[in-house]
Design goal:
This protein is mainly α and 203 residues long. It contains 7 helices and no strands. The chain has helices at residues 3-13, 20-31, 40-73, 96-139, 143-146, 157-170, 183-199.
Length: 203
């Protein structure tokens, strides 16, 4: 259970007059799927959602108390008790309206988590792509020769690209030292490399 979320939510609902059991149920529901390293923004959003649930619970409890008091004060309604558990509002730990509301919040959180995971994955892919591009540039590998290169997610970027450059050098598609030859030699190397790249089958 995320301790930061637990403390923030308990502090947020402590003055709502809810029982400890009800607060524990809220904290347990809010903590589902929340990682220990969740961001402050994500935690604050969850706390705000479940604070709304707590307010709704407080209103329902108040309504039930007032209804009960009215029945006790009305002689015609004495003995007509509805505490048989029908409808889910009586005799259970959680009323049906709360279960439904909690499910809606769980679904919203699941969708938010999925979107956040996709964003993180895309961000990580873009960062790795930038690292590969920067390393290729550092090694003097032309960008057009990198268009057909695909590295595994767990591949060692520096090793793979160093080996790739050596292969290009061995096949006379790159000079041993980039920029080390004459302008005409460099131009010829580039033309040879472009010709070789064009001869490759499409990926």
């Amino acid at each position: 259970m995320n301790k930061q979320l637990q403390k923030k939510l308990q502090d947020a609902v402590k003055d709502f007059g809810l029982s400890e059991k009800a607060i524990e149920a809220l904290v347990e529901s809010a903590s589902k799927g929340v990682a220990d390293d969740a961001s402050d923004e994500a935690i604050d959003a969850i706390v705000a959602n479940f604070k709304g649930i707590a307010k709704a619970m407080q209103g329902e409890v108040t309504r039930k108390v007032q209804e009960s008091k009215s029945k006790d004060d009305d002689p015609s309604k004495k003995g007509d008790k509805s505490g048989d558990g029908k409808g889910g509002d009586q005799g259970g730990d959680e009323p049906d309206w709360f279960k439904k509301y909690r499910k809606e919040q769980d679904d919203k959180y699941a969708a938010l988590k999925k979107e956040n995971d996709a964003f993180k994955s895309e961000k990580a892919a873009n960062e790795r792509k930038a690292l590969i591009s920067a390393k290729a540039k550092e090694l003097g590998i032309p960008e057009f020769l990198m268009n057909r290169v695909s590295l595994a997610d767990d591949a060692d970027i520096e090793k793979e690209l160093t080996d790739y450059k050596q292969e290009l050098v061995n096949n006379s598609l790159l000079p041993k030292e980039t920029g080390g030859g004459s302008a005409s030699e460099d131009k010829q190397m580039q033309e040879d490399a472009e010709s070789w790249a064009k001869s490759l089958p499409d990926a």
